[in-house]
Amino acid sequence: MSNYLKLTKDKLDIEEISQLVTESTTGAVSIFVGTTRDHFEGKRVLTLEYEAYEAMAVKKMEDLCQLTRSKWPSIHNIAIYHRFVNLFNYLKGLKISFLAFFVL
Questions:
Q1: Are strands 86-88 and 43-44 parallel, antiparallel or unpaired?
Q2: Can you give the pTM of this predicted structure?
Q3: What would you report as the CA-atom Rg of the chain, rounded to the nearest whole angstrom?
Q4: In whole angstroms, what is the distance from residue 8 CA to residue 33 CA?
Q5: 103 near 23, Cβ under 8 Å?
Q6: Are 79 and 100 in contact (CB under 8 A)?
Q7: pLDDT (tens digit per residue) in 24-41
Q8: Across-strand partners of 31?
Q9: Phi, psi of 99 (to 5 degrees)
């Protein structure tokens, strides 16, 4: 059982991260993908900026893994990746900002 946690400014690759958590002994991979949206409260979103105090953010990610494992002990691997960077011009393409994978 492993936890893969990462804060990055790099583009997130769903396939690459999925391969980290996938095992031949498991029967499913559950994925949550958070993306930016083009509106909020009736206003157009032109830019979105994520920032993080890395030490605290990674600690909270570890806490989430521990809580998840306490509720569902059969989970094999967990990957939580978060992109923190300025995301400009949503209309130029989908910007993935958060990924969470749970292998059952």
A1: unpaired
A2: 0.77
A3: 15
A4: 15
A5: yes
A6: yes
A7: 888 888 888 877 777 889
A8: 101
A9: -135, 140
Bridge pairing between strands 2-8 and 77-83? parallel
* Euclidean distance between CA atoms 67 and 43, whole angstroms: 36
pLDDT tens digit sequence for 49-100: 777 788 898 999 999 999 999 998 888 889 998 887 766 654 444 445 455 5
CB atoms within 10 A of CB 54: 10
Name the phi and psi angles at 33, rounded to 5.
-120, 120
| Per-residue tokens: 45 | 């979103």
The amino acid at 11: K
Domain formed by 2-103, architecture = Alpha-Beta Complex (3.90)
Q: Which pair of tokens denotes residue 98?
A: 């958060």
The residue behind tokens 């999925």 is 18
